[in-house]
Amino acid sequence: MKVILHDLDQSYGKIIEANCDRMISADGKYAPCQGCFGCWTKHPAECQMKDKLQQVCREIGRADELVIVTKNLYGEYSPAVKNVLDRAIGTSTPFSTYRGRQMHHTLRYGKHDLWKVIVYGEITEPEKDTFRFRAERNAINDGYARSEVLFLQNLVELEGLL
Q: Is 155 left (phi over 0), alpha (psi -120 to 50) or beta?
């Protein structure tokens, strides 16, 4: 299953929906993570907050391919996208295991294929390096076999990259 998480406005909705099985819009119409860890312990993979991200752990956890479309913010995800990723912490469990000689949380949904980040907006070379590093580490931590980061000069290029 291919899931696209994006922070674009509604005018891109049809393009995105045509290229995925599930679309998650980081539009800010939800509460930020409260850090209660209920999605880890009390109600596995389900947030206690009753809003549109209540099931986001399950949606992202079941993705074979996760595509994140985000505006660059100093080499990091936009705040709206980061909020969604924070709310998806329940894709793993509170238990730890070794993967690649490093300690990581145990995966609740098993391994995945591709963690892909498409970045738009002005960006410097050091910020690109930061994004590549972040995507690689996120992919490892969330059990993805590989990561990919693409940088757009213009959002017109987006359709062919999804």
A: alpha
Domain count, the chain: 1
pTM score above 0.85? yes
Of 79, 83, 53, 162, which is closest to residue 116 (Cα–Cα)? Answer: 162
For 35-63, write each residue's pLDDT tens digit: 999 998 899 999 999 999 999 999 999 99
Q: Which amino acid appears at position 153 of this protein?
A: Q
Domain CATH code at residue 106: 3.40.50.360
Give me the long-range contacts of 119-123 (CB less than 8 A, separation at least 24).
119/70, 119/71, 119/72, 119/149, 119/150, 119/151, 119/152, 120/69, 120/70, 120/71, 120/72, 120/151, 120/152, 120/154, 120/155, 120/158, 121/71, 121/72, 121/73, 122/72, 123/72, 123/75, 123/151
